[in-house]
Amino acid sequence: MNLESPKVTVEKPAQYIFDQLTDVKNFEKLMPENIAKFEVTGDESFIFALKGMPEIKLKLKEKSVPNKVVLGAASDKLPFTLTGNINTVSEASSEVQLFFEGEFNAMMAMMIKGPITKFIETLAQNMHKL
Question: pTM here?
Fold first, then answer.
């Protein structure tokens, strides 16, 4: 299952956005209002839970300065990645788009597609909070 957020323009340089996204504690600022839990568990990992959803642990898997940050599930039960692509628009602004990729059976994909789509759209819309 592959999902993508709309592209959002942020009035910050790409390097700034990259630095913010590689510091996992900053993801708390991006979370939707219905977050039930957010806990940093290490320099490159955190756990979060939305109301009515199970806890998910994410960890930093890959970084490509200043254009790409990849987070992945720490558990093999639900294998997925969340990739942030950052493109420079000008010296003072950049464009960010999030991509969710996961391998799920058809039933699971059907159940989570809506909530995950809404989740990554919210993360993208909140980029200006960084």
Answer: 0.94
Alpha-carbon gap, residue 45 to 2, rounded angstroms = 22
29, 130 in Cβ contact below 8 A? yes
Over residues 77-125, the pLDDT tens digits come to 788 999 999 999 999 999 999 999 999 999 989 988 999 999 999 999 9
Q: Within its chain, how far is the Cα of 1 from the centroid? A: 16
Integer CA distances (angstroms), 105 to 40, 52, 78, 100, 102, in order: 29, 20, 10, 16, 10
Cβ atoms within 10 A of the Cβ of 124, count? 20
- State which fold the 2-129 domain adopts: Alpha-D-Glucose-1,6-Bisphosphate; Chain A, domain 4 (3.30.530)
Per-domain residue ranges for the chain? Answer: 2-129
